[in-house]
Write a structure and sequence with these properties.
Helix content is about 30%, strand content about 20%. It binds zinc ion.
């Protein structure tokens, strides 16, 4: 297959720009001018790109596929203007939902309503036809449920608020139907786990959505045994449109059983790799769960929390490395990151030198002295550019004017010589790699705010932003020799775009459309009415 008359950003070492790509089977056979490629190859298919832009296939180095699939099944409540509007959406969904099945929704926000008050269960009872209903607030920190759901969860006037959570109540003590933070688990505990059929549906829906957004590979950060098995089946049956690089959640039964097996690398025609382990050391900044060295600037006395002791962390990391798995540790606060870097240093110093590529997921807030340690230890800061632009409205309140300078500190890290694998953390935030690319070089939100970028000194260049979602993400998966740039011999993973994202004004990146996604030399997504084969 020949792609001609394009603008091909190869991201090869010389950062050269070409006009055409030749693909043979699953690999790139040649890159050059259109004339040259036509001369060298006799293709079965020629695709005239008509000036469209070709990038190495985008890779999301940190996301959650099942979460996205579940979200796609939920009633979408984002932007709804009243509880009545939501009730009508639930009523429609109830009609097409099998008896006894739960109805899930996500995205309500009472601040958008005329009466800015929490809703109640009774507003849903009338429309839910006996189905339990569970609706997640836009920030994920509150649930609105109906009486059926509370009945199944055995929640009543007698129920106590759990540590770190709150049941909203009427004056007489009865629960209203809204559950905050840790109290959410009272209801979540009785939601039936997904069936294998639902897991398959969710993963396939999510994978198709990834292909539509121009992703050719996703690092699925934290999966259990059921998902591991499902991925293996889907890869074996050749049903995955995008590559999956999965990390097993730990500590967990899944990790205990899978660590004894060899990592799975390039399974199913290269579509599935499972060679990582994911664990958490702290929480998130928004909910003040990220572990900080000093107290939160807007919450005196609170330094956040660590979820694991230093010895526990050491031994899990050691275990991963000993079994040939790459450790990926979630750390957001400066204390969380410090603890993980110390653990990596200790473990790496006690084992033979090797190519381990341990990762810190998020690496959001760093002690100034820890910035150079990533490069020194060979630890990869796996970061999400859109986290900076979604957190910027309140991050400085949490951290104050000094610590904020080493938060989302891409430039500081890049200057030490490290790479930054780029991700989105979908479905927590948007999944479009073009949005992440835009955030990385602008540090502005989707409305272009602030115009010059938030702490603009930490921006990436466009070229760095492009490498962040291609080559550096490929490196994070030990795959830079196979993908991440458009060069002869590499796998034919490509993303074709309607506009030249390396040149257009920043705002136009967000209106750029994905024309075509190619994985393993196969077109896995094509925009209706996009360049057609001749
Ligand atoms: Zn995540």
């Amino acid at each position: 297959m020949l792609l001609v008359n394009g603008r091909v950003y190869t991201l090869d070492p010389a950062n050269s720009v070409a006009g055409a790509v030749a693909i043979r089977g699953t690999r790139i056979a040649g890159v050059g001018t259109s004339e040259e490629m036509r001369r060298r190859f006799v293709p079965d298919t020629v695709i005239d790109l008509r000036g469209k832009t070709v990038m190495p296939g985008f890779i999301d180095a940190h996301a959650h596929m099942s979460g996205l699939g579940q979200l796609m099944q939920s009633v979408v409540l984002v932007g709804t203007a009243s509880p009545e509007e939501i009730a009508a959406l639930v009523e429609t969904r109830a009609r097409e939902t099998p008896p006894d099945a739960w109805i899930h929704g996500r995205g309500w926000d009472q601040n958008r309503w005329e009466k800015k008050q929490f809703p109640t269960a009774s507003q849903l009872d009338a429309v839910s036809s006996g189905h339990p209903v569970i609706l997640v607030r836009i920030d994920g920190h509150a649930l609105w449920v109906n009486s059926k759901a509370m009945e199944l969860a055995h929640v009543s006037r007698e129920s106590r608020d759990p540590e770190g959570g709150k049941i909203i109540r009427f004056p007489n003590g009865d629960p209203t139907g809204v559950f905050l933070d840790e109290a959410r688990s009272l209801v979540e505990a009785v939601v039936p786990p997904a069936t294998p059929g639902e897991i398959e549906r969710d993963l396939l829906n999510a994978a198709a959505e990834c292909a539509r957004n121009g992703l050719t590979e996703v690092h699925d950060m934290g999966i259990d045994s059921l998902r591991i098995e499902m991925y293996q089946r889907l890869a074996r049956e050749n049903k995955l449109p995008v590559r999956i690089y999965a990390a097993i959640s730990a500590p967990s039964p899944a990790w205990n059983s899978w660590k004894e097996k060899d990592p799975l690398i390039g399974f199913g025609n290269g579509m599935l790799t499972i060679r990582s382990m994911k664990l958490y050391v702290d929480g998130a900044l928004g909910s003040r769960g990220a572990a900080l060295v000093d107290e939160y600037s807007d919450d005196p006395g609170n330094r956040g929390l660590t979820m694991m002791s230093a010895p526990g962390l050491d031994s899990l990391i050691r275990e991963a490395v000993a079994h040939g798995f790459q450790p990926c540790v979630h750390a957001i606060g400066d204390r969380g990151n410090h603890v993980v870097l110390n653990a990596y240093e200790k473990v790496l110093n006690s084992i033979p030198r090797g190519d381990y590529r341990p990762r810190i997921e998020h690496a959001q807030v760093l002690l100034p002295g820890d910035v150079p340690r990533f490069r020194k230890l060979g630890v990869l800061p796996s970061m999400q550019p859109i986290h900076a632009t979604s957190d910027m409205y309140w991050a400085e309140a949490r951290l104050g004017p000094v610590r904020i300078r080493n938060a989302y500190a891409w430039r500081s890290l890049l200057e030490t010589g490290t790479m930054i694998p780029g991700g989105s953390d979908f479905p927590n935030d948007g999944m479009e790699p073009l949005w992440g690319f835009y955030a990385a070089f602008t540090r502005s939100d989707r409305n272009g705010y602030p115009e010059d970028g938030w702490h603009r000194e930490q921006r990436m260049t466009r070229e760095e932003a492009a490498r962040c979602f291609t080559q550096w993400a490929a490196y994070a998966g030990f795959e830079e020799g196979q993908k991440g740039s458009i060069e002869a011999g590499k796998l034919a993973d490509l993303t074709v775009l309607s506009k030249d994202i390396m040149q257009v004004p920043p705002g136009e990146v967000l209106s750029t459309e994905v024309e075509m996604t190619v994985v393993n030399g196969r077109i896995v997504y094509q925009k209706p009415a996009s360049p057609v084969a001749q």
